[in-house]
What does this fold into?
Amino acid sequence: MINNDSMDAVLAKAQTLIEALPYIQKFNGTKVVVKYGGSAMVDENLKYNVIKDVALLKLIGMKPIVVHGGGKEISAWLKKIGKESEFINGLRVTDEETLEVAEMVLSKVNKSLVSHMQKLGLKAVGISGKDSGILKVKKKFSDGKDIGYVGEVTETDHTLIDTLIENDFIPVIAPIGYSEEDFHGYNINADDAACAIATALNAEKLVFLTDIEGVFMDPEDKSTLVSQMTIEEAQSFIDKGVVGGGMLPKLSNCIEAMKNGVSRVHMLDGRVEHCLLLEFFTEKGIGTAIVNN
It folds into this structure.
């Protein structure tokens, strides 16, 4: 027989499933772009939990697309060859040698994520923004400064992504694009790449996995986490200088994506186990969601 404590645990699990049901019904068949980065990419336990979350999203009928970064690993490999990483306004200065390392590392990360998914029985395909001309770019400058082979997305062709989704594959995309002027490769900020892809797909959700809990009214007071805000409120946070550092470009990207068709954007702490499930399928959620009015 099940004792009272065991029964309470079983009922709690059942209640969790019941709580998730309306969200599962609502998001069935929708496209979700997950920008995968931060600590969740370098901690093996967190990495595996994120992949399990993505697996569950797929198995309940959602259509996940993963766009990943790899900045920490790129920096580590550059250090191994005796090359210091240089950043201007948060963007990596990318000369020919750095680009070569970045492409190598991102390919390694890409195939590692695909392998993790396949271990869980998922069909996944690793590609980059170069494939089938998914991400076309122009040279990006930072406050007028030349930062090398860093690209700003000008056009997104989602034909290949759609084909993969329609054939039951999860696209796993590395943020490397090319310029139509010289067909040279360009490194793309992964947040920018995720926004461009989510916009092109008219995704229901765009999710940023980060190393911060979300947006705060007061960054020094963790009790002021904003669980939900409108586009106008997000813009107000920027205008008033409430957010800064790495959150500023993320919030700007969120606003831009939503103005161009993405229904909802989430910023989640990827260091929290199963953060995707907690945000999507519970009433309270754990991060900051930006929604339309």
